[in-house]
Design goal:
Blueprint (H helix, E strand, L loop, with lengths): L6 H10 L1 H9 L1 H8 L2 H4 L1 H27 L6 H18 L3 H7 L1
Length: 104
Amino acid sequence: MQRVRTVGDLAERIAKDPDLEKRIKENPIRTIAGLVSPVQTDVWVFRIVVITLGLVVLGAMLIGVLMAMSGKDTPQFVVAVGSAAGGALTGLLAPSPADRHRLT
C-alpha cells in the first residue's frame, strides 16, 4: 500500500480507490493510520536522531576546545563532522516550507 504525505494525497487516493473509501468508512482510524509512514508517527526516531546529532556537535566542540587548549590544531575532519551534524540538526529543527504554509 502506497503511503500518503498530505491530506490532499489522501483525498486523491480516496477518489481513485472505492475500496479505500469503503475501508475508511468502516474503520477510519486503523485505515488512515496504515497509510502513514511509521517514521512520521514514531516520535522516538526523531528524538534519537536529534540527540545523536546534538552529541556529535557537542563532541566536535569539546575535541576542538581540548585540542586548542593543548596547543594543537583541530583536525579538519572534526570541524567537518561537527559542521555537518550542526547543519543536519538545523535542517531537522527548522520548519519546512510546507509547514510554514500551513502555519500562516
